Amino acid sequence: MIADFEKFIDQVEDPEHQQRVRDVLEWVQTTFPQLEQRYAWNQPMFTDHGTFIIGFSVAKPHMAFAPEGTVMEAFDADIRAAHYNPGKKFGRIKWSQPVDYELLKRIIEFNIADKADCTTFWRK
After folding, report:
1. What is the pLDDT tens value at each position of the chain, 124 positions in all?
2. Among 28, 45, 91, 104, which one is most buried in terms of CB atoms within 10 A?
3. What angle (nearest 5°) sits at the alpha carbon of residue 37, between those of residues 34 and 42?
4. What values do phi and psi take at 46, rounded to 5?
5. Which residues belong to any copy of the YdhG-like domain (predicted)?
């Protein structure tokens, strides 16, 4: 299902972290089967009609999700409430924290709807 991302997942050193990344990416693909997989800028991402929806990356202390700055602003309170250490364009989920799939679902749904008429990869 996420075969395009296996090389990325294999580079994650900790087997538990690998599994979490795999679980999240498979969840996105299962929940939003219309999204296309793309690997670019050293991260797995999902697009819709050629426009960026969400990307993921990993670091030693966390897994990050990046839905673009506009979405981070729209969901700032929810991301902070989940203690996901928000940045301008991404949130960080510590490996010790549970993944709030409902929050991710709302973020992705927002981005799909908000970019329905977008004809560029990134928002202008």
Report:
1. 677 798 899 999 999 999 999 999 999 999 999 999 999 998 999 999 999 999 999 999 999 999 999 999 999 999 999 999 988 899 999 999 999 999 999 999 999 999 999 999 999 8
2. 91
3. 155
4. -125, 140
5. 17-112
